[in-house]
């Protein structure tokens, strides 16, 4: 009888982790939570393959935050990092607060916030957007969260967007002090670009796909980024989307003050079905190792626009 009960429990455990559409975990905010929140190890083990590297946290108020999921080598589990500090600040989280996360199986977590002293929900968490703490922009639109390998719509939620006009402009990256030439594609602006801007890290860069990128198949890399990462000669570069990798050749044209990739880029464009106005975010794993290894996150303009209109 005991063996049968144990078998039943194992079956129930497997059924829960493999077939339930929504999963939950809770986490107590301990010292160091301001910049990183460790995800429980058991949840990480069972859901690691399901999670894209960029997920969304949905506040009780409905405000959406894009947060990067990274491996925590100390705790041997996953953790929320880049973007988490913004969530902490906007919700005035304190030590010993209890957070409950509801995972919908794709890339979104709904979050409930409980006061560490009263053990009751914190009412203020339902008014973050209304008070303007999370985002002071007035316009909003529907945007999908795109996982690294996604070619379809993943999740739709409301994202605050600034009222972008149709124009040709530049984005500056403060830490690198470089400017990327971009082009807005509609009166509302490139929605995929708006999402990509929120997740690009200081050590990375992003490129809005132009016709030359997807038809002539040449990728120009920002000059100052090349200087910062000592990318000043012809060499191999490895790009990775999820678990798949592509080996490419980088060329540096010192007299023209620019560098870029041609050999191998066409294959990358085709394999990932890149289209004009899609946005790619590139992040180096370690600039000191050779060949240079770049993780690539793709935000698809067509999907962003269709979800906005739907």
UniProtKB/TrEMBL annotation:
InterPro entries, sorted: B3_DNA-bd, DNA-bd_pseudobarrel_sf, REM16-like
SUPFAM superfamilies: DNA-binding pseudobarrel domain
Highest taxon of source: Eukaryota
Gene3D superfamilies in UniProt: DNA-binding pseudobarrel domain (2.40.330.10)
Domain TF-B3 as annotated: residue spans: 22-117, 204-302
Annotated protein name in UniProt: B3 domain-containing protein REM16 isoform X5
Keywords carried by this UniProt record: DNA-binding, Nucleus, Transcription, Transcription regulation
Annotated compartments: Nucleus
Keyword Protease: no
CDD domains: B3_DNA (cd10017)
Main location class: nucleus
Species of provenance: Camelina sativa (False flax)
